[in-house]
Each structure stands twice: as structure tokens, then as C-alpha cells.
Amino acid sequence: MNQEEVKEEQKQEETQADTPETEAEAAEETQTEAAAEVPAQAEEEEALQTKYMRLMADFQNYKRRAEKEKGDIYAYANEKIVVELLTVMDNFERALQHEAADEGFAEGMKMIFKQLTGVLEKAGLEEIKAEGEDFDPNFHNAVMTEDNAEFESGKVTEVLQKGYLLNKKVIRPSMVKVNN
User: What is the domain extent for residue 88?
Assistant: First the structure.
């Protein structure tokens, strides 16, 4: 063999000897890079998962809020007209308290009033019970006080104007007289 062939053979041996170290080093570097990428990927995935969960929670809250608003709209859509009809009902009750010369007419008016109250009750209207009850400022509006031995202190002695609830919401408090 000549010198060139010897040198070339030595280079090949060195290359072959270096190759396992280089491959081992390359594999080790790849593992190190992969190990460095794994926590970074895990953190990114966790951040995305957290973001997704918050977005889902926000969407669920939005859906609940929208459903509640929709229900409130249906429940209280009639509130304005019902409030206006309350004065008609008050006048109707006052008219029925007076004696009529014609019994048939009075009976017919009572039936019409009963029908009107039935329709309003189906719409969610409910009378606030007041006379003899404890005074509650959430449901009663005290316009007068009196000393009445028949009632305990703080009890409603007389209802001056009936109060009403529409779907459990006070649309008109009862105007009452309260015992001292």
C-alpha cells in the first residue's frame, strides 16, 4: 500500500470510530432537545386547555343568562297592561259593593268580574294577603296608623288598596293601615 491509501484508510477508521460517538451524541442531543420541548409543549397544552375551559364556562354562563332574560321577558311581558287593568279591577270592585236595583244585572257584573280575575290569575297575577298579617314593607305601603285593641302591634288592620304580585314580583304594594 502506498502512503495515500494508508492515510485514506486511517481516515475511514477514524470516521468509523467517530461515527458511533457522533451518533450517540446526536441521539443524546435529540433526546435533550425533545426533553426540553416536552415541558414547553405540556405548558402550552395546559394553557390552551385552561383557555378552552374558561371559554366553555363563559359560554355556559352566557346561555344561562340568555335563558333567564328570555324567561323574564315572557313572564313580565304583560306587566304594563296588567298594572293598567288593576285600576279597572279596583273600580269594578267598588261598583260591586254598591247595591243594584236589578239583581240580574248585579249577578252578571259579578260573573264578568270573576272571569276577569280568572284570566289575570292565569297570567300570573296574585293578590297580596294583607289584613291581619304582619306589616312587611316589601309587600305593604303603610299610609296610616291606628290604635286598635283587636290587633297586635305591627299588624295590618285595614287594606285601603289591594296589592298584587305578577309571577312573584310585586307590581303594586298594598296600601294599608297599621296598628301601633
Answer: 79-179
